Amino acid sequence: MNLKITLDNQVVSATLEDNPTSQDFIKKLPLEVELEDYVGKEKIFSVGKLSTKNAPSRYQGKKGDITYYAPWGNMALFYGTDNPNASGLIYLGKINGDISLLKKAKTIKIEKN
Fold first, then answer.
1. pLDDT-derived band at 25, boundaries 50, 70, 90
2. CA-based, 20 to 30 A from 50: which of 23, 44, 81, 93?
3. Exposed, middle or buried, 83 (CB in 10 Å: 0-12/13-18/19+)?
4. CATH number at residue 55
């Protein structure tokens, strides 16, 4: 699944994996929300409960990753490096574009492309 992501007024694309968590997330699109910076490495926003079926128990986020943090019901989009290997973090996909835009972004709009 290809996505169109607007970070403030800048557009990038993203590609999601075909897994139960991504499929649940797609059902919530389109969405437009404010982003919160977390630990100077990722932007987060709440999406509520998504499926964790067949998900690995841990994942280490990488720069550009789109992930779901199941314990908090948050999406986490990584722009930093040296990210933790976290229990409950599920990989959904990857941003295909200028990741540095994410660091400064205050809002995000995500649509199917």
1. very high
2. 81
3. buried
4. 2.40.100.20
Separation CA 35–CA 14 (nearest Å): 17
Average pLDDT over residues 46-69: 97
- State the residue range of the domain holding 74: 2-112
pTM above 0.90, yes or no: yes
Residue that has been written with the tokens 């948050």 in this structure:
74
If one counts the domains in the chain, the total is 1
CB count in 10 Å sphere of residue 110: 24
Q: CA-to-CA distance for 70 and 98, rounded, in angstroms?
A: 26
- Token pair of 26, please? 């797609």
- Measure the N-to-C terminal CA separation of the chain; round to a whole number of Å: 8
Percentage of the chain surpassing pLDDT 90? 96
- Which is it for strands 31-34 and 107-112: parallel, antiparallel or unpaired? antiparallel
